[in-house]
Design goal:
Elements: H1 8-22, H2 26-43, H3 54-58, H4 66-69, H5 79-89, E1 100-104, E2 113-114, E3 117-123, E4 126-130
Antiparallel strand pairs: 1-4, 2-3, 3-4
């Protein structure tokens, strides 16, 4: 059963976001970005109380993703990208992004906290940050 409601257009949007944000980190990196996106739709807490759909999440502003805000969200979703997006929508979780709501690419080491959220770990170029389960139970 899917973790969040979605359409085929939503799958393509999420796939495009995953590709734009993490193609350089490979399939697993893209899956982790997908985790963050799905978690934001499911969260209903913090910066995500008005995020109810994949479309809302992809185009959230302010506080959204660099890919959509800085203009590199232009590549179409390939079949492989859509397959990865479906895996995260269906509930696949990939550590350290399993319960994360944020990620970013630092120039150096990952900080212990980012905007008050704890570092869940790093995968290749991205650091992932998760909220406490008592703050955002919808993610868990």
């Amino acid at each position: 059963m899917p973790r969040i409601k979605h359409t085929e257009q939503d799958v393509a949007l999420l796939a495009r976001l995953m590709r734009a944000e993490a193609e350089g980190d490979g399939k697993l990196g893209m899956l982790m970005v997908g985790n963050v996106g799905v978690n934001r739709v499911a969260a209903d807490c913090l910066d995500f109380t008005e995020i109810n759909t994949i479309r809302d999440m992809v185009f959230q502003s302010p506080g959204g993703f660099e890919a959509t805000q800085k203009g590199y969200f232009y590549q179409r979703a390939r079949g492989m990208d859509k397959k990865l997006a479906r895996k995260t929508i269906k509930g696949g979780r990939y550590h350290p992004a399993s319960y994360s709501l944020w990620f970013f690419r630092p120039e150096g080491n990952c900080p212990a906290q980012w905007y008050g959220q704890w570092n869940a770990g790093r995968y290749k170029s991205h650091c992932f940050f998760a909220s406490d389960s008592s703050v955002c139970p919808g993610v868990y």
